[in-house]
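Input chain follows. Return C-alpha cells only.
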Amino acid sequence: MNNNSTNIYEMENFIERFKELMWIVITAIGSLLLPIREILILLSLGFVFNIITGIVADVHVNRQQFSIKKAFSSISQAAFFMSCVFFLDYGSKLLHDAQIGQTSVRWLTLIVSYFYMVNIFRNARLVFPKNLAIAFIYELLSTEIFIRLKDMVGFKSKKE
C-alpha cells in the first residue's frame, strides 16, 4: 500500500510539473505573438467575415451544402498567412532589422486583407444582387470596373 501511495504522489507531482511546463510554453508563445497581436486579430476578423459570407452565399444562393473541404482549405490558408506574418516579424528581429519586418508584415497584411475584401464583396454581391453599392465596390476592388469603362469608351485591345 505504501508503494501505491508513492506512485500516486509521483504521478500527481508529474502532472503538476507538466502543467507548469505547458504554462511556460504558452506564455513564451504569447510573448512572441504579442508584437503582432493586432495584425493577427485583423487577419482573423477578415478570415471569419470571409467564411461567413462564403457560407451564406453557398447555402442560400448557390443552394450547396456546407463543405468541410472548403472550410479546411480556408482555415489552412489563414494559418499560412498568420505563420508568414510571424515568420517575417520574428525573422527580421533575429536579423536586427525590425523596421523591414514591420514593413513586410504591413504589406502582407494589406495584400491579404485586400483579397479577403474582394472575396467578401463577391459573395455579398451574390447574396444582395440588387444592391448597387455592393456591386460597384466589388467591381472597383476586383478591377472589373476598368473592363466596363474600356467597353464604354469603345477601346479595343490588339488581341480583339
